[in-house]
Every structure is written in structure tokens, then in C-alpha cells.
Write a structure and sequence with these properties.
Two copies of one chain form a homodimer. Chain A has seven helices and 28 strands. Chain A is α/β, with parallel strands linked by helices and 410 residues long. In chain A, the strands form eight sheets. In chain A, strands 7-4-6-5-9-8 form a six-stranded mixed β-sheet, with no helix packed on it. Chain A has a six-stranded mixed β-sheet with strand order 16-13-17-21-20-18, with helices on both faces. In chain A, strands 22-25-24-26-28 form a five-stranded mixed beta barrel. In chain A, strand 20 and strand 21 form a beta hairpin. Chain A starts with 9 loop residues before the first helix and ends with a strand.
């Protein structure tokens, strides 16, 4: 029997992720920063909102002027004026007085709350009756209630979502230091692989991995650079790998499905200066023949040639490395997995982790994970799949009806 | 008491979504199509893979040549040659014969299966022994097993993920007809709103909604176009809205927090030719004063000025409309909600749907939804939130410990 290779447990492989540095930082405008990863901590330079604001349309009052008020026994209050939006009130309010105010208006001195317009009746131009007592602080936001001056408002390593861009806007920050998108070189190998534009003769297959891997890199915050299809030739692969290593923050080689090429990739990696193979084989299925090397301070991957295997390895192994190079702190940006009920038994082998493609189906308010049947060489199984479930190495399978965690395939 | 407005139930509002047309279609290259929505059905023009392929490294055989083989009683088979990757085998295989083959190699005529290299011993250059019988079809993919010629491989309205780009590549489709990204005009209103670049005096607040809404539009497949901040002035708002309506596939106006502006927005919409207000008020919290109008064949929104209210309304009301205009079929692109255990009681009022911001926390393998405390005017509550939960109009709240569905805020 042929000796395969000495595998490295998935956990151990993932531990390497944090040993690769980020790709540097750059400043981007607030309109461009959505989805990017903050490279600095950000502190507030002022209180937010900076002044006490009404959160309702109504009348700014001293709460004590309304205590005990009810429909049957309203509080009568003199209207001293109206607050214009965006302006500082020119007058202050005493007991038994009120100022008309809109949502977002600045409270005048002497007031501590707002009586909602729905709880107020107008007697004449100067007088209102309040039907419901208000509590101090009710229907207002204090000057420093959202954020206080000097507070850390966002931390380095956090992903900028819509609300974070809004927060930066609130503090007048119109450009922000983020981690650079890592440049990821993509290389397809194999004598059987032809470009998408060509008509495949017998035995040939069009290049799929360049497209799926580029798309996955983009979706995960990287910037794919395509090096095309390299034939199973040591010298060609060495030259392309060397160039890719010089110009990237990560390199992904896929293919090497032939026995010869698998050795090429290892040999090529060993021939590039300052490069060391760290992992050759991971006990996962699909994806066992995965290679991880360190070249300088970046990671170089050898992924299986089959599209499904390459995609699964990307999802479960490469992704945490890209996240780290993108600067994402380990806690952020992790979509929690979905809980679903397994719709059929899934057999599995001891000693390896199986990743099973599943479709998510909702029936009568219950979410089911239906294993997608079909060989792992078939791309149709990935088209049908909404996610992956993991079957641990210490089990011989999962039972129908049990709860499983589903990693979504976005 | 002031009459507020006649509200429209959320379900009814969402029914309008499908009544607005898509933004047209365009052709994009395969490298640019990730995340876009397919505008045509796609049929295969050939079988995939197009030839019978090995899925393992080993020996292509007639399965019958190995029947009964075991470690103790191996089958002896003559090796007739080796299959080069990407080439048509020049010979055929008969009973008791084999050809060396790599993963992805083309099966020679006369074979129906592959004996894995791990189950084979080499006797000499011409002879192997097979230690395990293989079944017909084992370790191979048939010529039409992935897709058959003439089959519908992708449907109009589906979102192109990594695997769909790979499938298009497999069929040689290097550019594809997708729905155009809808242009969404963004208008911020309010006398209290100042540009991000300015220092806010008392009573003023920087423009947040332009950034959060632009980001949400982008994340959901639209192309935001910013019209800036419009003061509370009928004529100015009318002019800007008219321009935006001419040049967009959807318009979102936020603000109108003052009583005056709320009426402006309605009046402005009623003054634009071929425009009709469909909805003025939805019994949801936050977000009650939401406006929806139809202008020509597009939707125009009046969202609340408070950032949290505007974001929640976007998530629960506007998003389904954007998805429809993007061409997404209603079944696709819906991330299933996450199930979590509610960590505390949530009170709620009868007769309206409450959307509560929650943080997701995993403790001992259980996912908890922790309501984020704080007024809905505070952006910090959205920064802390990972998702929203819905409290129905027919309940007075949710109990601690119950299961809730969480809509993730990406």
C-alpha cells in the first residue's frame, strides 16, 4: 500500500492562523468603509448628542409641573414659546410653564422632560392642559446619554457595519484607518484544465476553481489576483508561485489532482526561498490532501482540485486565515451557526471530520437540514446546498431527528 | 388630542413590494457577477463533466475483474498502461486488465470503476494485486452525472454565489445577464442636521442617516446616490425629490422629525406628478411614522429621522422592496433567522409589532438573545446589537427563557 501523508489535526492547523500578519492599513472615506475592518481604536471627542433632546413631539416641561395630572384632573401649563429645530432656545422654563418642541429639538433650560402631544390639549394660544403626568427624564435623551466625551466608541478589529459608519459620521469622522484588503493570488493547476473560453475536448474540463475561489476571497474581504492555469510542469509552477508569493498576502493553488502534481506543489514550495511546508494533509473529508506552507510571513495553500473539496476547505480552513489577515478580531464577524433538525441519518468514518452539504428547509416552523446526496466531485451538490454540517472524528455518524449546527454558505 | 394618522398593517405594506418592477438587466463578466441576481434561466449546452472521470487515484478496471478480492485473496490484474491527465485513453480495457489513472482522469473504454491506490499492491511493472473488490460505478463520475445536456442549471431570480459562478465557468459562460443594481436616492431632511464635516453648535446634530442608509442599500444590492441634507423647506424638498424620482429606482427620505416636516414630506409627495401616498404610518415600534408612496413605477419612502428607527424600518420594511427591485425571487437570498433563548422578559404593547435590538451571546453551547437596553434614539444600542427580535401585536411581551427568532444585523 502507498503511504499517503502524515496528517495534521484541523484544530492544530487553525492555530497557525494568528501567526500571519495583517496586510497593513490605509485610510478610506466613510462612504467606502462598509464591510472593512477598523485598524485603530476610536474615542469620542465630545458628548453625543451634545445637548438634551426631545424624543417626541410635545411640550418640554419640568416634570413636577405635571405631577398628579390625569384625564379627569389635567395640569394647566402656560406655553412660553416654541423651540425651532436646530436652534438654541432663547428662553428658559419655570414651574407651570412649557415650550412646544419637536422630536430632536433642544430642551430649554429649566426643563427635564417632554409631555407627548398625544397627552396634551390646547386651551388657547398660551395655555395647554396635560392629561398624564410625566417623569423627570421622560421622552428626552441627555446630552451624554449616547456616548460620553473620551469614551472608546469602536475598537480596532471590528467590522464596520451600517451602524458603525453612522456612528463615525456622528463624530465627524469622514475617513477612517482600516486594514488593507489582503491580495490573494489564485493559481489553478492541472493538464486537464482549460480556460473558460475554450471548448473542452474529451478528458478536459474548464477552469472552475479560479472563479469559485476568487468569489470566496472577495466575499471574505480579500482582493483576488488571478494567475491563470498552470500545466503540470515543475518549472512553470515554480515561476508562477514565486511571482505570486512576491506580490500577494496569501496564495491559493488549487489542483494537483494527479499524483505527480501533488508532489510538484510540495517540491515547488520547498524550492521557494524562505518557504516551509507546515501541513500536508488534514483528516477532513472532503479536503484531506490540503497543503499549508509559510512563505516569508504569508500563507500558501495547496487545495484539492475538485471544486467541492476546494470550496469546503476554503470554508472551514482558509477562511479563518483570511479573517485574521483582514484584521478581524477573532470575536467579531462570526455569523453564529444555525440550529436545524437533521432530516436523515448521516454515516461517517471514525478518525476524520466530515463536512456534509445540507439544504435548509422550513416545515411547520421547524428548520430542517437535509443532506444533499451526490458525490463530492459534483458541483450540483454545492448549488443545492445552503450550508455545511460537521460530523466529528469521534462519532460514526449523526442520527435523524437530532439537532445540528449549520454553517451557512453565503 | 391630536389625531395621528391611519396606520397600515405591516403585512399589507409588504404586499406592495411585488408591485414595483425591476431596474432592467445588463451583462456582467463572470468575475464581477458575485452577489448579483440572475435575470435569465440558464440551460446546459452539454453533459457535465462530459466524460466518465475517476474521483480517486488508482486503477481503472472492470468491476467484475475484482469481485471477491480481499487481503487474503487478492485479484491479480494486468496493467495495460497509464492514462495521462486531460487526454483521451488510446486503448481499451478488457476483463482482468487495468489502467493507472489519477483523480480527474478520463476512464478508458471497457472500464466502469476505479480501484483506489490504497487497495492495490504492485507486483511488477505489468501486474497489480487488488485487495478489495470494487462495485460498478465506484470512484467514478459518469459523463452526465453532474448535469445533463439541456437541463435548466440556474433559474432567473437566483443570487450568484461562489458555486454558481463556478457552474457558469464549467459551461463556458464568461458573462451573464443579471438585473441592474437599483439606483436608490438618499435624502436627509431637518433644520437640525448638519454635514459630517461641520462642527455642531447647540441643537445641531451631524447627518448620520445618509451614511447608515447608503451602507444598508449597498449591502442589499442597491447603488446609493446621495442628495445631501435638505432644510425643512417645502420648495427645496419638492425640487430635490422631483430630481431624485427622475433618476432613481427608489427614493428614501429620512427625517421629518418635526411636525412641520412630516407634513412637508406628504405634501411634497402629493405635489409630484403621478405620485400617490400608499402608506402613512405602520403599527410598528420603532418606526410608526413611516411613509410609502408610489411615484410612477417606483417606491418613495419617508423614514423616521432617528437613526435607530430608520435602520429598523429599513431592515423590516424597505429591505423586501429592495430585494424585489433587485430581481431576487422571494424564496432565495433569505437568511433563515437564528433561534436563541431570550435572556430576560420583554414587555410590549398590544396592537403594535415591537422590534427589539438584541445581542447574541453563546454560553455553554446555548445561544442567548440579550435585549439591548436604552432608548431608541441612541445609536449605541445599534452598535451593541447583533440582531432584532419581533414581538407580535397580539402579545403583551415575551418571557425570559423562551425561544425567539433573531434577524441578524449584518
Amino acid at each position: 500500500m502507498k503511504e499517503f501523508f502524515k496528517v495534521t489535526d484541523l484544530d492544530k492547523v487553525l492555530e497557525y492562523a494568528s501567526s500571519f500578519p495583517q496586510a497593513g492599513t490605509e485610510k478610506v472615506s466613510l462612504f467606502e468603509c462598509i464591510g472593512r475592518v477598523l485598524a485603530v481604536d476610536i474615542y469620542s471627542d465630545a458628548d453625543l448628542p451634545g445637548f438634551a433632546r426631545s424624543t417626541m413631539d410635545g411640550y418640554a416641561v419640568r416634570a413636577s409641573s405635571t405631577f398628579g395630572a390625569s384625564e379627569g384632573n389635567p395640569a394647566y401649563v402656560n406655553v412660553k414659546g416654541a423651540i425651532a429645530m436646530g436652534e438654541t432656545p432663547s428662553f428658559s422654563i419655570g414651574p407651570g410653564e412649557a415650550a412646544k418642541i419637536s422630536t430632536g429639538g433642544m430642551l430649554p433650560d429649566g426643563t427635564d422632560s417632554v409631555a407627548m402631544i398625544e397627552h396634551v390639549g390646547q386651551i388657547d394660544d398660551m395655555t395647554i392642559e396635560v392629561y398624564k403626568s410625566v417623569a423627570p427624564g421622560q421622552h428626552i435623551i441627555h446630552a451624554d446619554e449616547d456616548f460620553r466625551k473620551g469614551e472608546k466608541i469602536l475598537g480596532s478589529g471590528s467590522k464596520l457595519r451600517a451602524q458603525e459608519t453612522g456612528l463615525l459620521a456622528a463624530f465627524g469622522i469622514d475617513s477612517v484607518e482600516v486594514y488593507k484588503k489582503p491580495v490573494v493570488g489564485i493559481i489553478s493547476t492541472g493538464d486537464e484544465i482549460i480556460p473558460v473560453s475554450e471548448e473542452p475536448g474529451p478528458g478536459k474540463i474548464r477552469d472552475i476553481n479560479t472563479y469559485t475561489l476568487s468569489a470566496l476571497v472577495k466575499q471574505n474581504g480579500g482582493d483576488p489576483v488571478v494567475y491563470g492555469i498552470i500545466k503540470d510542469d515543475f518549472q512553470l509552477l515554480l515561476e508562477t508561485c514565486t511571482t505570486a508569493c512576491k506580490n500577494s498576502n496569501m496564495v491559493i493553488i488549487s489542483g494537483g489532482s494527479s499524483v505527480g502534481t501533488r508532489d510538484f506543489t510540495i517540491d515547488v514550495l520547498n524550492s521557494i526561498p524562505d518557504t516551509k511546508v507546515l501541513v500536508h494533509g488534514i483528516p477532513i473529508s472532503p479536503g484531506k490532501p490540503t497543503i499549508l506552507a509559510r512563505s516569508g510571513n504569508m500563507s500558501v495553500w495547496g487545495l484539492p482540485g475538485h471544486v467541492v473539496s476546494a470550496m469546503v476547505v476554503f470554508e472551514v480552513v482558509v477562511k479563518p486565515f483570511i479573517k485574521n489577515v483582514c484584521g478581524l478580531s477573532p470575536e467579531t464577524g462570526n455569523i453564529p451557526e444555525l440550529s436545524a433538525v437533521l432530516s436523515r441519518n448521516v454515516p461517517s468514518a471514525h478518525g476524520r471530520i466530515d463536512f456534509i452539504r445540507v439544504r435548509l428547509v422550513e416545515k411547520e416552523d421547524t428548520l430542517y437540514a437535509e443532506p444533499v446526496l451526490g458525490k463530492s466531485g459534483l458541483i450540483n451538490t454545492m448549488i443545492k446546498a445552503d450550508g455545511l454540517i460537521k460530523v466529528d472524528e469521534n462519532t460514526e455518524g449523526l442520527d435523524k431527528g437530532g439537532m445540528v449546527s449549520v454553517m451557512p454558505l453565503s
